[in-house]
Write a structure and sequence with these properties.
Length: 1031
């Protein structure tokens, strides 16, 4: 193989033709790390990979394999439902005449050996297991896949796709066999063995003038990363909407790697309009260096034209300044660029600005976009000698293809249709269009441009607060030394015993020079009689010098530091008593300050350091302090709740009734209910359960299936959602607004039924209000009994009382877990809508978001990067909400956090560091009140640390991690079951996981003290080290 064609990896077998694979993660599965590794290795071994990304249905994958004429499909499946998914894929391939396509899969330990054997017997080529990884290695697995696909693709058949077969009948229903035949013909064209098609003419013009109606070819080219695929998709969507009978072929070219001969054909991942049967897409690799098109592009266009498509769109690979070959093939060409092209002189070098019919300046929401539009227009004037035409008449269009129904894309599309009508006939005339309004893209940034440096500002504010605290500590230490020296000098010369140094300091600081006594009086006995002779007075210069220096330095001691030093003795006395009283929301809470061990030791709940040096005191209070006091390093509340442990056990499997039974099991015998809800992947992606096999197999797997309010009623039946001792957590993100609405409606229904039972309009006991059916009536019948306005009152009461958390963290989903179902921008706006609704309806006990680092850690982050990303996401939400006009103290108390624990040393202080940074940022940067400064977080023991081998040892790891979390004053804790590495937890394993928390909380004596981490030289060093790394 020549260098031009590529050099596959050493030790591999090179097939005689290019092997093409379609790769994807299964439906409702965001775990794409494994399939990304596989597709990169396939590319490195010389394969052409059509990558679809995650959450892809069987039909999408099979359609892609047929249209792309792929020899193989590789799918990762880590979310269950694999038996139905893979067997359905084999069935669908056979039904569509593509049974020759080889199917490969993998799912780690999720797919057990018995299932692997059954799937392979059914027709799956191979399911790779962890044992295969150990014996073959990754390269060996890839080679096995390539060897299995080494046969030649389609046989060389005479051209048999007559244009008439497409026109006859309904153009909206293209048979899969036709697409398969088109795909095979394009493959033959790539191999150089395609027989002449009915419409093939001269080598110079693949678009004969005799064609009626004429099928136009639109070329789309531009720099890599300019958004060509997204723009193509948006244009296709508009064509489909405006021309109901139009069929479209999309040919997308991506470059071949010269070193390996492989190629990533990734344009399909951006195409959302391919579900339509009126759209066919084929990805082509250039298979040659220094070109943006494949040598087979011209023949592929011929095939598409002969197949009866009404429009052919050709998207080139990323183009350089000198590339303009697309203009030689297309009737109309569109050049796509971004505002980031360098100096305006660079525009003079771009060949396509001479040849493009239309120019799209995409990603127009980026900085410098208006300047770019001005410069491009100037260049177009020069290139085409158009110096009198108004700016609006020049073919330069600002676009934001990533925005739905973008006005700029509408304008570009309408201009393109106008060109097509002029060049290809009246068939392209539009009497009406869905592409309105058209114009310049609307720019509504979630965070204003002047605030884009917010993370840098926050880090600076935290460092500044730390520096200020250290400086104040140094001043206090110097004052302590000076005042101590002053007391020694005075005592040495009989000026009295100044045991209270702070009182002496205040006297000196408040006095004027020379007004503090010099100690001339003699010492006296108990009767006031002079004893001995007076000692010689100290030299006035010494006293005055010390006093002057004390007064000078005292000027730099801020009022807060003075107050903390003045109240330190009282603080110590308060914590040395028998009990302590503090106030929460206007209610006084009194707690005992000690717990008595079996040996009779009075263990303090909060132990204060024995400090005398004012510098040490200032540093402790500024950087540590007691729990419940700024900067909340030791905890955000003065004491832990004794009536409710931080236990929150995750549950979710099957239908709502089954999960409800598990909730009652984990809450049995407790005076409180802390329910953590896991939803199945179908619900996580906002879809309803269905009988279609690739959906059916996922229903109720790894979570509960919920799709109606009635499902939600059954899920929480028997739990009072308005009881202050009930707290509900819902782990859901993409469809979080809808699930949250269901939850609040269920809480409102409970409250309404409680009221109806109380006044006798509904028969039953008070606890019956917690059931879906009361007095043999379901909600639709019960609602008829309510008087006007009664439902609104019940709902308002419920939302104000309900306690809990909805995860709803879309930034983390984008970064780590991939259950986004809306664009990030739209999802962030919905999050802001929810938070504003919370403020308007006095929702004080429910967190509108759980800003999650757990999934970032499970995706591979270490403790420091997990914390850094999570806090950055939290501050991003703060900026988004502030930009909407919300006040910081209106929403900050509704924010919560969720971290992963683990075995690394940094996990011991993850809560300490998070609380300190958040508090400093809220106070110093945003001016927030104390409630907003308190970072509350849930923590879960690490799923990544669980071993699939010797699973019984996992409880040891979990116990150690739980101890770290509880010693660090977490607000909520989930301990993983030991068998989660291989299966859904059983009642037995969940009971043991819960016991880990109970034994730590109730039996482990160290945790009788609530600030055990404070005072440890190592842990304080580790806290400072991790904080510095995060910032």
């Amino acid at each position: 193989m020549s260098r031009e064609e590529g050099l596959p990896m050493e030790g591999t077998t090179t097939p005689q033709h290019k092997v093409r694979f379609v790769t994807a993660a299964a439906l409702f599965d965001g775990h794409d790390a494994a399939i990304n590794i596989i597709r990169r290795l396939l590319q490195a071994h010389g394969a052409e990979v059509i990558h679809l990304g995650h959450n892809r249905s069987v039909a999408e994958i099979v359609d892609a394999a047929i249209q792309e004429d792929a020899q193989g499909i590789a799918v990762s499946s880590y979310q269950g439902g694999h038996m139905e998914f893979f067997t359905y894929m084999v069935d669908l391939l056979r039904q569509r005449g593509a049974g020759h396509v080889k199917v490969f899969g993998g799912g780690g330990g999720v797919i057990v050996p018995e299932e692997i054997a059954e799937l392979q017997a059914y027709g799956v080529t191979r399911i790779f297991s962890p044992d295969d990884g150990r014996t073959l290695g990754l390269d060996g697995m890839i080679q096995a896949m390539l060897d299995a696909c080494a046969e030649e693709t389609g046989a060389e058949k005479p051209w048999n796709v007559a244009r008439e077969s497409w026109i006859a009948g309904d153009t909206n229903e293209r048979p899969a066999a036709d697409y398969l035949e088109v795909a095979r013909q394009i493959t033959l064209a790539e191999q150089g063995t395609l027989a002449s098609t009915p419409l093939q003419t001269t080598a110079h013009d693949p678009r004969p003038t005799t064609r009626e109606p004429r099928c136009p070819v639109v070329g789309i080219t531009g720099t890599g990363g300019a958004g060509k695929s997204s723009l193509t998709d948006e244009l296709v969507r508009r064509f489909l909407a405006d021309f109901p009978d139009l069929t479209i072929a999309v040919l997308a070219v991506d470059p071949t790697k010269r070193r390996t001969g492989g190629a990533l054909l990734g344009d399909r991942i951006r195409m959302n309009s391919l579900d339509s049967p009126r759209v066919y897409m084929r990805s082509l690799a250039t298979r040659q260096a220094h070109h943006t098109l494949s040598a087979a592009t011209r023949a592929a266009i011929d095939v598409c034209v002969a197949s009866g498509f009404g429009l052919v769109l050709v998207e080139s690979a990323g183009a350089g300044q000198a590339d303009s070959e697309i203009a030689d093939l297309a009737d109309q060409s569109v050049y796509v660029m971004t505002p980031e092209y360098g100096a305006s002189m660079q525009l003079e070098k771009i060949d396509m600005l001479d040849f493009a019919d239309l120019v799209a300046i995409n990603k127009f929401d980026r900085p410098g976009a208006l300047d770019a539009l001005r410069d491009v227009r100037k260049q177009l004037r020069r290139n085409h000698n158009e110096f009198t035409m108004p700016d609006e008449g020049l073919p330069a269009f600002p676009t934001c293809a990533h925005q739905f129904h973008d006005r700029g894309v509408n304008a570009l599309y309408l201009a393109l249709v106008s060109h097509l009508e002029r060049e290809s006939g009246d068939a392209w005339h539009l009497d009406a269009t869905h592409a309105q309004p058209a114009g310049t893209p609307e720019r509504h940034p979630l965070i204003p441009g002047e605030r884009v440096g917010y993370l840098r500002e926050i880090a600076g504010a935290c460092r500044s607060a730390r520096s200020s605290a250290e400086a104040q500590a140094r001043l206090a230490r110097t004052l302590y030394q000076l005042v101590g020296a002053r007391a020694c000098v005075s005592a040495r010369h009989g000026a009295g015993d100044h045991a209270d140094l702070w009182q002496l300091f205040e006297e000196i600081a408040a006095s004027k020079a020379g007004n503090v006594g010099t100690g001339l009086a003699p010492a006296r006995d108990q009767h006031g009689v002079a004893v001995g002779r007076p000692q010689a007075p100290p030299p006035h210069s010494t006293i005055e010098t010390l006093d002057a220096e004390i007064r000078r330095i005292a000027l730099d001691l801020d009022n807060g530091t003075r107050e903390r030093l003045a109240t330190w003795p009282k603080l110590r006395a308060d914590y040395a008593g028998d009990d302590f009283t503090y106030t929460v929301r206007g209610r006084d809470i009194t707690v005992p300050l000690t717990a008595v061990s079996l040996s009779g030791t009075h263990v303090p709940k909060v132990a204060l350091p024995d400090l005398d040096d004012w510098g040490d005191i200032v540093r402790f209070l500024a950087l540590e302090n007691v729990p419940g006091a700024y900067p909340y390093t030791a905890g955000v509340f003065p004491f832990k709740r004794t009536e409710e442990l931080p236990t929150r056990m995750f549950a979710g499997e099957g239908g709502p009734e089954r999960t409800n039974a598990r909730f009652h099991y984990v809450s049995r015998g407790q005076s409180y209910a802390r329910l953590s809800t896991a939803f199945d992947s179908v619900t996580l992606y906002g879809e309803d359960p269905a009988e279609r096999p690739d959906i059916y197999g996922k229903v109720g797997e790894s979570g509960v299936s919920i799709c109606t309010v009635e499902d939600m009623e059954r899920l929480y039946a028997g739990f009072d959602l308005c009881d202050p001792n009930t707290s509900v957590s819902m782990t859901i993100n993409g469809p979080a607004p809808m699930i949250l609405a269901m939850f609040f409606n269920v809480a409102g229904r409970q409250e309404a039924k409680r009221r109806l039972i109380a006044d006798g309009r509904l028969q039953g006991k008070p606890e019956d209000a917690l059931q879906p059916v009361v007095d043999a009536k379901r909600w639709d019948e019960i609602a008829d009994v309510l008087a006007p306005g009664e439902w609104e009152g019940a709902l308002a009461c419920a939302v104000a009382q309900a306690r809990g958390t909805v995860q709803a963290d879309i930034l983390k989903e984008d970064q780590a877990q991939n259950t986004c179902i809306f664009s990030t921008e739209f999802a962030l706006r919905m999050m802001g809508d929810i938070q504003q609704w919370f403020g308007a309806h006095d929702v004080r006990n429910f967190y509108s978001v759980s800003i999650s680092g757990y999934h970032i850690a499970e995706a591979g982050a270490n403790p420091i990067s997990q914390l850094a990303f999570t806090l950055a996401n939290g501050f991003t939400y703060v900026e988004v909400y502030l930009a909407r006009g919300m006040a910081i103290d209106e929403f900050a108390p509704n924010l919560s956090f969720f971290f992963s624990n683990g075995m690394d040393p940094e996990y011991a202080v993850i809560g300490r560091v998070a609380r300190r940074i958040w508090a400093a940022a809220m106070r110093e940067r945003y001016g927030a009140n104390q409630r907003s400064q308190k970072l509350k977080y849930h923590i879960q023991t690490s799923g990544r640390s669980l071993h699939a081998q010797e699973i019984a040892f996992n409880d040891i790891r979990t116990t150690l991690q739980a101890l770290l979390a509880m010693a660090d004053n977490c607000n909520s804790l989930h301990t993983n079951a030991y068998d989660e590495a291989i299966t859904t937890p059983t009642e037995e394993s969940v009971r043991r996981a819960l016991a880990i928390q109970l034994i730590n909380a109730k039996e482990f004596g160290l945790l009788a003290n609530e600030n055990p981490w404070q005072g440890s030289a190592f842990l304080e060093w580790l806290t400072d080290t991790v904080e510095a790394a995060v910032l």
